[in-house]
Amino acid sequence: MTHDAPEHDDLDLTGGEDPLLEACLNDALRPYLGALSPEALEDYRRFLTVFITTHPAAAPLYERLRARPSNLSRSADVAREGAAGAADAGAGAAPGDGTFGKRR
Asked: Compositional bias of type Gly residues: which residue ranges (predicted)?
């Protein structure tokens, strides 16, 4: 008995470019730019696009990344879900020295 995997004709792999997805793909494929043919790179790009956006392990991580602010204009504290307030986390820290509990 054979099982034919359904084609993903409904996935839009070319239009609606997502800068986050493009960055992920470029990072993943950069080491192979000189080693693989353009056709092979495009095949891997399509495979990784489907994997990142549909796989049960990868898709939730991708969606969490998409929900984060894309560009922070400066370095600052970013609140995380379920994290204690900044005042609790930084209690006892000397201003600007990166230490906690007044240890040096």
From this structure: 93-104
Contact at 8 Å (CB) between 38 and 84? no
pTM: 0.52
In sequence order, the 6+-apart residues with CB closer than 8 A to the CB of 13 are 46, 49, 50
Can you tell me which residue has the tokens 């986390």?
89
Mean pLDDT computed over every residue of the chain: 74
Which residues lie below 8 Å from residue 25, measured CB to CB, with a gap of 6+? 45, 48, 49, 52
61 in Cβ contact with 55 (< 8 Å): no
Taking a C-beta distance cutoff of 8 angstroms, is the pair 58, 51 a contact?
yes
What are the boundaries of each domain within the chain?
Answer: 15-68
